[in-house]
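Q: what sequence does this backbone want?
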C-alpha cells in the first residue's frame, strides 16, 4: 500500500486578495493547489513562456516541482496548498518580463 510521509510537508489555506507580486518555486516537491473560493489563474513559467491554468471553486491543479508560479486573482478567495516547503524561493514578477500590475 502506498504511503505519504507528511514530514516537511506544508499544508495551508491562504487568502488571495490580489494578484501575487512575486513568483514562487518549490524545489523539494510538487505544489497541489485547490481553489476553495474566488477565481484565479495559476501562471506557470515554463522555460520562459507563461502557461495559465484557470481555477474556479473546487478546481485543483498540480504545479510541478521546481516550476516558478504565481496567481492572477480575478475574484478574491482562498486556496489550499500542499507542498514540501524546504528550499522554497521567491522572485519579483519582473523576472518573467511582467509588471507587478499584471
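A:
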Amino acid at each position: 500500500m502506498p504511503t505519504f510521509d507528511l514530514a516537511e510537508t506544508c499544508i495551508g489555506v491562504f487568502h488571495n486578495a490580489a494578484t501575487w507580486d512575486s513568483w514562487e518555486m518549490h524545489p523539494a516537491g510538487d505544489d497541489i493547489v485547490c481553489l476553495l473560493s474566488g477565481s484565479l489563474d495559476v501562471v506557470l513559467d515554463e522555460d520562459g513562456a507563461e502557461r495559465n491554468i484557470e481555477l474556479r471553486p473546487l478546481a485543483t491543479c498540480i504545479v510541478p516541482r521546481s516550476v516558478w508560479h504565481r496567481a492572477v486573482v480575478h475574484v478574491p478567495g482562498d486556496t489550499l496548498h500542499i507542498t514540501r516547503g524546504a528550499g522554497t524561493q521567491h522572485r519579483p514578477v519582473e523576472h518573467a518580463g511582467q509588471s507587478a500590475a499584471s
